[in-house]
Amino acid sequence: MSGRTSAGDDGTDESESTADRTLQRRDLVTTIGGIAGISVLAGCSSGSDGDGSRDDAGGDGSDGDATNDDAADGETASSDGSGSDDGGSGTTGDTGDEAGVQTANTVEVLSTAGTVGADGESIGEVRLTVSPATGASVDLTELTVQFLVTDTLAYLVHTTVAAGGETAFETEAITAADTSNDVMSEDGDQYDIVIPLGANVSGDGDNSGLAPLVAGESAELTITTSTGSETIVTVQVPNSLEEYSSGATVTF
Question: CA-CA distance, 183 to 157, in Å (whole number)?
């Protein structure tokens, strides 16, 4: 009896051990299943995060839209820039008006010549034949003439306005609708601007400081009107004046 009992005890123990192992296996399976479930859930969470990333990307897209809005703002700025261009056009118009005024008071030089001095070896007088630009009206008494030769620079005014000792030029009408004044008001008007060199000028002008031009020498003259319009001309004396006599006209 005892023996069976012992045997029975051992069997009971074995059965209990078997049951325990079974429970352990079930627990292990449950644990593994739980871990797998957690992994699956984690994967889903990652997918959700991925969706979140896509949402974020969508957010970036929204930012892209904002960028497009900024680009639209840039277009608006460009439109404003066009407005500036319009303003620029207005400025250009003003500049054009000023240019028109200057053009309307421009002096045109038709020819240049000189008169041989008493010594027969130099030019003692320079003449510029001028006329007004088309439609212009030019008061010759308001002109200034810059005379530049070698290292000499002088500013000449009309003899009627020259103060004592100022260098000056004279004017002589060649053809003019009205010779009672020194105003060129018609297209066909022509005058000579006369610059004596090394001599006194009628009125209060004094050109004794301007040396006569010798053979081969040149001078640059700039005629400026009251509106600031400039006409520049260069006169060049021939390399030899031997063939000319005193008082002869030399065409430059």
Answer: 15
